Structure formats: structure tokens, C-alpha cells
């Protein structure tokens, strides 16, 4: 990122992502509906590993869950909130990522994650869209090069949900991935398709060992 944007990310007084982080911290404590998150989990500062270890196998659901999925499960099933409040889920998730600032990504070794990772790896290398490009061709082979005005990043999930200048708001990883797919003129997967999860499980393994970023910002 440009030095100016890196400075903005570090300045917690100016960085817009912190509006969501602070909102999430209040929601964690508060009991607007049902028991608070803190009443079961304790202070959010203690949730150091949650963001670093998702997606993770969820025994009850029999499938992997992202951190956002887990927050949604607890919010709706344990707190009794309605499912529609996306900003609430985003804020809580951003606060959990901030609590894990600097913690290294630790993929879930559960054997049931393997088929998802394998499918995700195949998708990562599969050419798609009218431009007939794969994720790997940009993010493995051309990382650091320029594409139009932007530098191609390595494509790691170290801070989602994050604030994107282009969106003028905070958004989840899936929105970013959808943007890359439409960028190569590919039809994005259906909103709840398993392909998203497979890609995210593979990407988590690819990013293993990288530290998480609190209040991440992108161009
Ligand atoms: C009534 C108790 C209860 C409440 C209230 C609750 N949770 Fe949970 N939470 C659980 C249990 C039990 C699990 C274990 C996974 C599961 O069964 O879904 C869990 C798992 C989690 C995890 C993964 C923890 C880890 O070890 O990495 C996160 C993150 C989380 N909850 C967030 C929240 C948030 C955010 C709220 C408030 C909206 C909340 N929880 C409210 C019981 C609760
Ligand atoms: C044509 C090249 C290209 C292809 C193909 C492509 N991307 Fe991207 N991707 C980019 C660029 C450029 C950005 C940065 C955009 C920006 O910051 O404005 C980006 C950003 C990302 C990011 C955000 C990284 C961060 O630090 O926030 C992720 C994650 C990502 N891509 C994943 C994928 C996945 C998964 C695929 C395959 C489905 C894919 N990309 C395909 C060019 C590409």
C-alpha cells in the first residue's frame, strides 16, 4: 500500500475502520438482546486466538465456519437477535480481529477441513472468466506488479472485514473475492455457494503464519 494509506491504517484516531471496531467492542459488552457475548466468553481482549483460527470445523454444523459465520451463529442462536443486521455482525467480527492484532494465522488441522482445502486449491488455480485468468496467475505469479493503477497484492486474508476506500465502508472477504471475479469477467459463485468457503479454507492455509492486522484499510 502507499505510505499515506499505511499511515492512515496506523492512526487509530483517523482510521475509519476503528468506528466498527469500537462499535463491536460495545456490542460485545452490551445486552441489547439476550445474554451478552461477554457473559459467556469474558472480556474481548481475551479472545486472542479466535480470529487467527477461523475458518474452523464446527462440530454442531458439520461444516467449516468463518469467524463471521460463528459470530452470526452466536448472535442469532444464543442472543436471539434477528439475522438481518449485517453491520452488527461486521462490527463484532472487526472487534475480534482487532483483539487478535499481530497473532499469527493458524489453520485448523481438523481432518474434515482437508476436502475443503483441496477444492479451494483447485479453484485458486482454475482459469475463469472472459479474461481466462486464475487467482494464482495474479496473486502468486504477478504479485508486486502493477495492473492499471493498482499494485497486485499477494492476496492474503490478514484483516477482513476491512475498510476499503473504494467501497467507502467496511466489507467482508467474500465481497473482495467477488470483486476479483467480476474483474476478470467471471460469473461470481452464488452468495451461499460452498466454493467461497473452499477458497477461504485454502487461503487460510496459504496465509499460515502471517500476523493479523487490526483495523485494516485498503485502497
Ligand atoms: C450462551 C453462551 C454464549 C453466548 C451468549 C455467546 N456465545 Fe459465542 N460461543 C458459545 C459456544 C458454546 C461456542 C462454541 C462453538 C459453538 O458451539 O457454536 C462459542 C464460540 C464462539 C466463538 C469462537 C471461539 C473460539 O474459541 O475461537 C466466537 C468468536 C464467538 N463465540 C463469538 C460470540 C459473539 C460475538 C457473541 C455475542 C454476539 C457470542 N459469541 C455470544 C457460547 C456463547
Ligand atoms: C487480474 C489479476 C487478478 C486476479 C485474476 C485475481 N485478483 Fe485478487 N486482486 C487483484 C488486485 C489488483 C487486487 C488489489 C485491488 C486493490 O487493492 O485495489 C486484488 C485483491 C485481492 C485480495 C485482497 C488482498 C488484501 O490485502 O486485502 C484478495 C484476498 C484477492 N484479491 C483474492 C483473489 C482470489 C481468491 C482470486 C480468484 C478468484 C483473485 N483474487 C483473482 C488482482 C487479481
Q: Count every helix, treating DSSP H or I runs of 4 or more residues as helices.
A: 9
Q: Name the ligand types.
A: heme C
CATH class of the largest domain: Mainly Alpha
Strand fraction equals 5-15%
Query: Overall 3D geometry?
Result: globular
The second-level CATH architecture of the largest domain is Orthogonal Bundle
CATH homology-level superfamily of the largest domain: Cytochrome c-like domain
Structure overview:
By secondary structure, the chain is mainly α. The protein has helices spanning 3-10, 17-29, 37-41, 67-78, 86-99, 114-125, 135-139, 173-183, 194-206, and strands at 56-58, 63-65, 146-147, 150-151, 162-164, 169-171, 217-218. The protein has two domains: 3-99, Cytochrome Bc1 Complex, Chain D, domain 2, CATH 1.10.760.10; 111-209, Cytochrome c-like domain (Cytochrome Bc1 Complex, Chain D, domain 2). The chain has a three-stranded mixed beta sheet. Helix 2 (17-29) crosses helix 5 (86-99), helix 4 packs across helix 5 (86-99) and helix 6 (114-125) packs across helix 9 (194-206). The longest helix has 14 residues, at 86-99. The termini are close together. The model has no long low-confidence stretch (mean pLDDT 95). The structure holds heme C (2 copies). One heme C binds next to helix 7 and helix 8.
